[in-house]
Amino acid sequence: MSTAAVAKATREKARRERLNECFEELARLCDPTGRGVKTDRVSVIADAIRVLTQLRVENNQLRQLNKFLEERVSNLERARAQNVYQQSLLQQRADSLLQQHAGAGMHTGVLAAGPGRIAEALGGLTGVELTARLEDDAGAGLAWLPAPNASEDSKLRPPAA
């Protein structure tokens, strides 16, 4: 045999060995447990095709699940942002009401409290009893009049005789 023929045979043997190693590795990848490792190339390729098909299906399912979860996260983030916005509006409203309450004085607070609170503040007196009590105590009626202002006195009260 010539040296060219020997070199060709050596190269061919190395190629077949690499090919066999690749098929063995593919067989191990298709069945990682090692049970039922097939040695014939057709069954190894059939197993590889089955595994690839299964992985593609699983990949599509995971993509759909990921898309669904991303949409859900997006909706939840949107709802959270809306809740934060509404909460900030409510806080601003509460702050402005507190400022109005502090600036308006006691009259606004008592009237805003409602009739039950007013009656409670007056010691339970209502209607005729309250009128009689105010007539008996001459100074008590003055507590309910607005703050005196001499320039508007003629507009608010009739002249005294």
Write the layout of secondary structure elements.
Blueprint: H1 3-30, H2 41-104, H3 106-113, H4 115-121, H5 127-136, H6 153-156
How many individual β-strands?
Answer: 0
Helix content: over 70%
Report the structural category.
Answer: mainly alpha
Mean pLDDT: 80
Shape: rod-shaped
The end-to-end span amounts to 150 Å
Estimated radius of gyration: 47 Å
The largest pleated sheet is described as: none
> Poorly predicted ranges (pLDDT <50, ≥5 residues)?
none
What pattern of helices and strands is seen along the backbone? HHHHHH
How much beta, percentage-wise? under 5%
Summed up, the helix count is: 6
Written description of the protein model:
The mean pLDDT is 80. This protein is mostly helical. The protein has a domain of 37 residues. The radius of gyration is 47 Å and the shape is rod-shaped. The protein has six helices and no strands.
Give short descriptive properties of this protein:
coiled coil; ILR3-like; mainly alpha; single chain; rod-shaped; 0% strand; 6 helices; bHLH_dom; 161 residues
Short recap of the structure:
The chain is mostly helical.
